[in-house]
Amino acid sequence: MSSTTKPSTVQRIEAVLTDEISIGELKPGMRLDEAKLAERFGVSRTPIREALSRLTAQGILIPGEKRGVFVAEYSREELAQIFEAMHEIEAACARIASQRLSLLARTEIEFAQAECISAAKAGDRAAYLRANEAFHLAIYKATGNPYMAEIATEFRRRTGPFRAKKFATKEDLARSAESHRELIDNIFSEDSATASNGMRSHMTESFVETLKAN
Amino acid sequence: MSSTTKPSTVQRIEAVLTDEISIGELKPGMRLDEAKLAERFGVSRTPIREALSRLTAQGILIPGEKRGVFVAEYSREELAQIFEAMHEIEAACARIASQRLSLLARTEIEFAQAECISAAKAGDRAAYLRANEAFHLAIYKATGNPYMAEIATEFRRRTGPFRAKKFATKEDLARSAESHRELIDNIFSEDSATASNGMRSHMTESFVETLKAN
DNA sequence: ACGCACTATTTTGTATACAAAGCTAAATGT
DNA sequence: ACATTTAGCTTTGTATACAAAATAGTGCGT
To answer: Are B183 and B204 within 8 A, CB to CB?
Structure first.
């Protein structure tokens, strides 16, 4: 995603933690201990602190009342608010994407969808989760606006562990992958309203499932 | 804004730097030297680094190619993209706010506007800039959705120094404060489309002025 | 006088040390 | 037996030290 600079230590740590949280390996409410992480990554507390600090600045982690940082944990009400915001942003992304759709963007979306399908068929949960993220990311990128993509991605990360919980069985994966098809068609229709509404209903569905699982 | 916790050292530093950047005191492209800041705030480099790291995570600062961090500097194209994203978010905020408007929210918006007017009359540029931010913040808060407010605020901060440049004369302040009136009326109309479109044209105007000044 | 290389200095990244603030728990007093 | 305080242990925040990277500068050779 970023430029040609090789990943520095804190970038690496940040990326690993982000991934583990979005996959649901580190669960909401879990405490992250600086010393333990330092030992795990074989570095001192300093770069760990920097990574944790950045993650809290992004809202992925939240500082505890008195001490420690925790994986962000949201109540149903808070989740509803976050999803409302995501609704707006994702709908806007879908609309803009539908207007600007390039061949490259189309291809990348289809490619990501293919990955979703194959991961779903294999029943590989972690792979599906990553492919699903890549799919939505491809849509964001299709807007041609990195800043829209950035905030959409940010929300996606925050809700990662909660959305992850709704994928329990192989059928869940298959159903999700199928629903992508309709979404793609709506976006590829190149009609703003169709694309935007398509994304809204996709997000609503996602929210319903997420609430059930949490 | 936050809870009852007293501002820690890094929070204080972060807040001061954020303010100085949004006011335009620290200009885009300026380099921030860790050692100098450490001396200035009378602390060691450690908390400075943490503050800078958090600010880069928020996109307010950007890391230089090889070394140093700089106040984020955007080309006209990039500014256009950021403003496009702001358009979408602010429009959504205005729409939601118009639907949920509470007496408290109304009052706070009006109060912020009063501050804008008086700062404009006094010709106090810094005070107007702060009041203007408070005004928009009040609208975000009126959505009742802290997450919408959060991203809207984030974009506002990023574009702060660029928008700040368009306020050169006392007349600029007065004109801006006046245009708030129409925006308020549109939002208070409690009609979604009116509110949303009102905000869109306000933002478009803001963008035009910003481009002229940059 | 110009270019190149090598050195010195600044600056960043990481580690370690230390002090302050919480938490745990045990011991003492009632 | 229960509450309260205090002692000890964890954990965090900040400072300092040190090593690696990068820039600037200096001198040397041609």
So the answer is: no
Which of the 8 DSSP states describes residue B70? E
pLDDT digits (tens, 9 = 90+) for A93-110: 999 999 999 999 999 999
Is-contact B211 B166, C-beta < 8 A? Answer: no
**pLDDT digit string, tens, across residues B141-185:** 999 999 999 999 999 999 988 998 888 899 999 999 999 999 999
CA distance readout (Å), A43 to A7, A10, A35, A36: 15, 10, 10, 10
Q: Which residues of chain A lie closer than 8 angstroms to B49, CB-CB?
A: 50
- Reduced to 3 states (helix: H, G, I; strand: E, B; else coil), residue B136 is helix
Q: Quick one: which of B166, B196, B18 has its CA closest to B79?
A: B166
Closest-CA residue to B180 (of B144, B141, B128): B128
Residues A195, A92 contacting (CB under 8 angstroms): no
Strand partners for A32: A69
B142: its two tokens: 């009126």
Exposed / middle / buried, residue A52 (Cβ in 10 Å: 0-12, 13-18, 19+): buried
Q: Which residues bind near strand C, taking a CB cut-off of 7 Å?
A: A 8-10, 42-47, 50, 66-67; B 33-35, 45-46, 49, 63, 67-69
CA dihedral B104, B107, B109, B111 (to 10 degrees): -140
The per-residue DSSP string of B83-94 comes to: HHHHHHHHHHHH
Other Cβ atoms within 10 Å of B118 Cβ, number? 14
Q: What 3-state class would DSSP assign to A69?
A: strand
Give the nucleotide at minimum CA-to-C1' distance from A52.
D12
Strand stretches in chain B, DSSP E: 31-32, 61-63, 69-71
Please identify which residue in the block is written with the tokens 């939240």: A62
Q: Counting beta carbons within 10 angstroms of the beta carbon of residue B1, is it exposed (0 to 12), middle (13 to 18) or buried (19 or more)?
A: exposed
Reference A19, options A57, A64, A71; nearest CA is A71
Report d(CA B58, CA B38) in Å as an integer. 21
